[in-house]
Amino acid sequence: MKTITEKEFINLVDYIKKNFGVDLYQKKSLVTSRLINYLTENNYDSFTHFFDRILADKTGETTTVLMNKLTTNHTYFMRESQHFNIFKSEVLPYLQRTQQAKKDLNIWSAGCSSGEEPYTLAMIIADYFGINKKEWDTRILATDISTQVLEKAVNGIYKKEEIETLPKKWQSTYFKKQSRGDYKIIQNINNEVIFKRFNLMGHRFPFKRKFHVIFCRNVMIYFDAETKKELVNRFYEYTEDGGYLFIGHSESLSREESQYNYVMPAVYRK
Prior knowledge:
The chain is of the alpha/beta class. It has ten helices and ten strands.
């Protein structure tokens, strides 16, 4: 069985930290266990051979494989449901008032994983606006670094047990049962979400407009303090005045880290 030397491990995690912000310095066993079979199946002699391929591959495909293998994308519908309640009861009424003239909402699900979060937001918006929804442009940008989870998100197909956390009305209204017993999100909701692969650690955000709401939940737990601070400040720059940032309940921001105002646990506002 192949093993990873200390030098190979440091080279690999240094590269990941520099390019993607993910801190894996204390995760040697995880890195090894998630990559070892791939290296064997693809005839890499060693971790050095694999790393050399990453550096030489100008297409970025090998790096994509690396991040697909190492990133954990655990999510489910209505995860941390309090956030969705706040989004419906406080955020949407505020945006409905302040954006009445433009009828244009700009929402970003950063680290969207397999699509449960942005689709939930889209369903809440559809419920909230009802028959007036057609008057509003409420499409949601949903991004992730992993192409594997984005593929599932775009397809919008989930097992029965995966949608059972949703209200029964939503299950029947927003999903269509497939021949194999899976459930596919209806086209109207699927069309509300724009999925893109995006690295939060890119040199700059390529967005021309700011966001009224940013969801970035349970992503920054993988970043060190300095990387987290840098990312939050970039979020702040791209948040509209009065806009909201939602982070995971296991995460928090201090006054020293950002200019966002604290609203309640894991909810901040510009």
